[in-house]
């Protein structure tokens, strides 16, 4: 059970940081002509887009021009992480003794 909690926490942290890095990169706009940057950006976008895309479709930026999908995704992932960890602990406590 502790292994599953560790995996959930680790997965959450990796996705959280990738979303944060993607948000920061959207402000900086690194050079995409460099093949190394292109590989890194491609990886970050391929991991985060399945999470951010549906949120962006539900809550469009409109005339504001600010994309709140990373913030909303981090919030929802945090809630999901807490729910899964509580579920794992409750399942684990039922199998003890």
TrEMBL record:
The chain crosses the membrane at residues 6-28, 71-91. Keywords: Membrane, Transmembrane, Transmembrane helix. One of its GO terms (cellular component) is membrane. InterPro entries: CCB3/YggT. Belongs to the YggT family. This is YggT family protein.
